[in-house]
Design a protein that fits this description.
This protein has three helices and eight strands. The protein is α+β, with helices and mostly antiparallel strands. It has a single domain, classed as 3-Layer(aba) Sandwich (Trna Endonuclease, Chain: A, domain 1), CATH 3.40.1350. The longest helix has 18 residues. The protein starts with 9 loop residues before the first helix and ends with a helix.
Length: 155
């Protein structure tokens, strides 16, 4: 059994992934903040100089074709979708490949809402259009950008 399959619920696996993201960010000398409770749309705050970024952490182990399908929807208990007023960045983790993607929320929460993205950290994608997030793989420099800078990606 793979380590991530040992968790009795997706919520517990999600908490484990959030801890992994916080550890990765902290190892890169970013100040990491965790909001108290589950009432915020974001999972982790990144405090970097004058910037404070709100990061929603997602993960996937679901292999489909050349990559992994990662859902960018709130958990089933929440009625509201994410908005650009709540989240600046998605941190998507392809668990089996141990690969992080740091994707500006403005790319997926704009007028053309994207609910599932394809990540291809193992095999070069055969459908380039479906795997347009590869340029964000391990792009930890996204955590140095301002909210305004991240918002420009969706235009």
């Amino acid at each position: 059994m793979k380590p991530w399959e040992k968790f009795p619920s997706l919520k517990e696996r999600g908490e484990w992934v959030e801890l992994r993201f916080m550890a990765e960010a902290a190892a890169r000398l970013f100040a990491v903040c965790k909001p108290w409770g589950d009432c915020r749309a974001y999972d982790v705050g990144i405090d970097h100089g004058p910037n404070f970024l709100r990061v929603q952490v997602k993960s996937t182990s679901y292999r489909r074709g050349d990559g992994y399908c990662c859902q960018l929807l709130p958990n089933h208990g929440k009625k509201q979708d994410y908005t650009l007023e709540q989240i600046d960045l998605f941190a998507a983790y392809a668990i089996p490949a141990n690969a992080w993607y740091l994707i500006p929320a403005s790319l997926v929460l704009g007028d053309r809402r994207v609910t599932c993205i394809m990540l291809s950290p193992v095999v070069p994608p055969t459908k380039k259009k479906s795997y347009c997030y590869e340029c964000y793989r391990e792009d930890w420099g996204m955590l140095t950008k301002s909210r305004r800078g991240l918002a420009r990606y969706g235009r």
